[in-house]
């Protein structure tokens, strides 16, 4: 049979006394008398057959056994607090989507009406971050550029990506490199997930080792830097599509290679918002397919 735990009142008394190192302060916090706190602690010590506090007049200090128990009690109370956190349930009318700022800006905002149409009556809440999504707390759906293969979650592959160099129309007064070797004399804009070495011909010179470089960890910002004439960026085709159509960016050279990663939707299979999550993922997948077809026309 499972062991019946002590009363929550005794546990609260112990945790407060351990935190304050004082029975009196614990009593004030819990609106009890110091005697009631002392009685609860003694009951716990008898139950465990362990001394939990060293007592020196009104001063108290945890014993080694008390410190061990205090750590476990705080962990357990934290789990209880999470269990009674009603925020996710109060937010049934809000769909929190975690994604990268480049994806939100270049892919989602232009198609926002379509995404909202997939979630009628829901507020779309975009959280732009590179951090891992926490589906147990405040994120319902994540759209990521990555390798896939994440465990413990539901995933759907949305689309591949390709890479090619781009420049702004006024870059270097139109004196653009004509081949890979000539890139060495120009400023190359680097992004950690779109390495120039993915695009460069392996048997050719490596201009990425030259000192002319600009490092930017946001893909959209890297494209903006290229459009403003600050250098040559290795663009993701989907993110650069609108700028290429408008003429803010121009493709440089002819070589195009597959990106190392692709776009993925990630969510928890136990989410209470599963129907609307699935509908939004369907809409995002259609958006990626339509964008690819338009770029091929």
Tell me what you see in this structure.
By secondary structure, this protein is an alpha/beta fold. The chain folds into three domains: 8-84, Winged helix-like DNA-binding domain superfamily/Winged helix DNA-binding domain (Arc Repressor Mutant, subunit A); 88-160 and 261-296, Periplasmic binding protein-like II (D-Maltodextrin-Binding Protein, domain 2), CATH 3.40.190; 162-258, Periplasmic binding protein-like II (D-Maltodextrin-Binding Protein, domain 2, 3-Layer(aba) Sandwich), CATH 3.40.190. Helices cover 40% and strands 20% of the residues. It is built from eleven helices and 13 strands. It has helices at residues 8-20, 23-30, 34-48, 64-83, 87-90, 101-108, 112-117, 196-199, 219-227, 237-246, 274-296; strands at 53-56, 59-62, 94-99, 123-128, 141-146, 154-159, 162-167, 188-190, 213-215, 232-236, 250-251, 257-258, 262-267.
Properties at a glance:
6-stranded mixed beta sheet, 11 helices, alpha/beta, D-Maltodextrin-Binding Protein, domain 2, Arc Repressor Mutant, subunit A
Instruction: Give the N-terminus to C-terminus distance in angstroms.
Output: 69 Å
Kindly state the mean pLDDT as a whole number? Answer: 88
Percent strand equals 15-25%
Helix/strand-derived category reads alpha/beta
Number of helices: 11
Short description, anyone?
This protein is α/β, with parallel strands linked by helices and 297 residues long. The protein has eleven helices and 13 strands.
SSE map:
Layout: H1 8-20, H2 23-30, H3 34-48, E1 53-56, E2 59-62, H4 64-83, H5 87-90, E3 94-99, H6 101-108, H7 112-117, E4 123-128, E5 141-146, E6 154-159, E7 162-167, E8 188-190, H8 196-199, E9 213-215, H9 219-227, E10 232-236, H10 237-246, E11 250-251, E12 257-258, E13 262-267, H11 274-296
Parallel strand pairs: 3-4, 3-5, 8-9, 8-10
Antiparallel strand pairs: 1-2, 5-13, 6-13, 7-10, 7-11, 7-12
Helix pairs in contact: 1-2, 1-3, 1-4, 2-3, 6-10
